[in-house]
Design goal:
By secondary structure, this protein is of the alpha+beta class. The protein is built from twelve helices and ten strands. Helix 9 crosses helix 10. The radius of gyration is 28 Å and the shape is extended. It starts with 17 loop residues before the first strand and ends with a helix.
């Protein structure tokens, strides 16, 4: 929530930015405490070069039988908490040590056991996955909180939800697919420049995907909300491409990547079945529409015939 969950009424609490050294101490303290309530507890790897933080984010999974929001709040000595219905996250306002009247915002995100490792994976390094997601999109791939998915092109523009075919939630497999260094991923980047270099090292990177004028709607929104993404598009990438020697780019197409992932993840049968069902439903819908149009055309023709007959009858009477 960007550290602003409690700044508005009815709470109106001051939640100032947290110096990095204090952040590390408190993050580790809260991880230790939350480990008494959940079997799995971790914090995503932070973005590089941050001197302060707006809040603390911790992912948890598999609660103990006695775990409740109230019991966690009491253990944290939280002044209050916010849980939105249907949301897996709860924000706690915890007194800021040695800062009277100020508070730390701790966001606890509860993950299903099956997706905990994956959600920790894509939440790491701040905006890195916003950058990688732009590279993936052009090849019909997309990552969400469940895993890496294929967008079926034939379905995508008519029904985005149904166009998604789950591929995997194995992080190592995904990094290998993208041509990214696995060991580097699990270490914190020391500089923003290092993170950017890693982002463009994927074999799916194409600089034309990051031209501001050609960005998709979601990416344009990120430009306003994510300074690291905006800096990459407007400043870093144009300079990097300007001084770079010609890169060797392996020619890839959406079609070639489709064949690769269908075979690599054993999804060809599911892909073909999804398409078969989609095409069958579309054909049935089109048949219904044609029948409806034919009936409408027949009704119009019948009405026109009746009107003409009435007009002829009136003329005959005269």
């Amino acid at each position: 929530m960007g550290g602003k969950a409690f700044v508005h009424p009815p709470h109106s609490l001051s939640t100032p930015r947290i110096p990095h050294t204090t952040y590390i101490l408190l993050r580790d303290k809260y991880i230790c405490l939350l480990s008494t309530f959940y079997q799995k507890v971790a914090s995503p790897i932070e973005a590089p070069e941050k001197t302060s933080h707006s809040d603390i984010d911790i992912l948890v999974s598999t609660p103990h039988s006695t775990t409740t929001t109230q019991s966690i709040s009491q253990a944290l000595d939280a002044k209050t908490s916010i849980s939105t219905s249907g949301s897996p996250s709860t924000s706690f306002a915890i007194p800021f040590p040695d800062h009277a009247g100020e508070y730390i915002q701790l966001d606890v995100h509860v993950c299903p056991t099956s997706t905990f490792a994956w959600e920790l994976f894509i939440a790491s390094h701040g905006d890195l996955w916003n950058l990688l997601g732009t590279s993936l999109r052009g090849f019909g791939l997309t990552a969400n909180n469940v895993g890496l998915n294929l967008r079926i092109a034939e379905i995508q523009h008519l029904d985005r939800r149904r166009s998604m075919l789950f591929l995997t939630s194995d992080s190592t497999s995904v990094l290998d697919l993208m041509g990214l260094d696995v060991q580097k991923y699990w270490r914190q980047f020391t500089t923003v420049n290092e993170l950017y270099e890693y982002a463009i090292s994927t074999r799916f990177f194409r600089k034309d995907d990051y031209v501001r004028e050609g960005l998709k709607s979601n990416d344009r929104k990120r430009m306003g909300k994510r300074p690291l993404y905006q800096q990459f598009v407007d400043d870093w990438l144009p300079q990097r491409m300007g001084i770079e020697k010609q890169r060797e780019v392996v020619e890839l197409t959406r079609e070639s990547v489709l064949e690769e992932v269908l075979d690599g993840y054993g999804k060809r049968g599911e892909y073909e079945e999804t398409l078969r069902i989609w095409r069958k439903e579309r054909a049935e819908l089109q048949a219904k529409q044609q029948n409806k149009e034919q009936r409408r055309a027949g009704a119009i023709a019948e009405a026109e015939y009746a009107e003409a007959w009435i007009q002829e009858s009136r003329i005959a009477e005269i």
